[in-house]
Amino acid sequence: MKKLNDFLSKNAQGDLISWQAQIQAAEEFGLSLHDVEKAILTLNLLPARYQRNRQTISTADQLKLFESKVAVIGCGGLGGYIIEELSRLGVGTIKAIDPDVFEEHNLNRQVLCRVSNLGKSKARAAEVRVHEINPAVKVIPIKDAFSRQNGLKLLEGINIVADALDNVPTRIDLARICEFLEIPLVHGTIGGWYGQVTTQWPGEGTIQKIYRDCAETKGVERTLGNPAFTPAVIASLEVAEICKALLDQGTSLRQRMLFINMLDMEIDEIQIC
After folding, report:
1. pTM for the full model?
2. CA–CA gap between residue 222 and residue 76 (Å, rounded)
3. Are 156 and 205 in a shared domain?
4. Which pLDDT tens digit goes with each residue over 132-150?
5. Alpha helix segments (H runs only) across 12-157
6. Which residue, of 66, 106, 123, 261, has the greatest Cβ tally within 10 A?
């Protein structure tokens, strides 16, 4: 470890470590890029890819993000953008959970979907995409549907969960399991020009309150559809909530929900009690 630290210190430009130096360290010391990135951040150095984060996220906070584990439930419209942004942000471990494969109708809005991977696993595509963006991030692809039967196992060791589901019953099961495990849950849903975001903290029962009078089992997107921009906007708000929660900064959307109307460019805040 001392030799690695000496190598990194020697190759630092100020406090920045270039991607090329990171690759060289991994090859020279027989380590994964994930291990090298952790060593860099532990030395209070910064991988150069994150230098535009630094006015918002300190190097110490960058290490917190790197040591965090986030589960994304659903790798479609919302989930794909969430995974993309988490990996660029520098969250160290992402568990990508989705049982489905890409279909042609996904091409209009799902950032992970392309013509070349139609018919292929969404969870596996998440792993491939993150490796292209930030190979230091670990992705654990799970080609399985989240359920009350496997939820406890799937969320073991996770720090926070992103809800990118498209149906109400599974969302409620997810919320209950997060409550049981005392894990924060960032919820987002989309349909047409509209979306909503909130964060459920342990003990608050937020998701159950939102959907207690809901008779529908499918999300509204099944009726309204989704253009390309709606998942991008709502996913970005979810990632902001995740980042704040992991770093214990800012004001969370706890016990309140944002409803975003992109057709009229209006945002309403709804209290949840």
Report:
1. 0.95
2. 13
3. yes
4. 999 999 999 999 999 999 9
5. 19-29, 33-42, 59-66, 77-89, 122-133, 151-154
6. 123
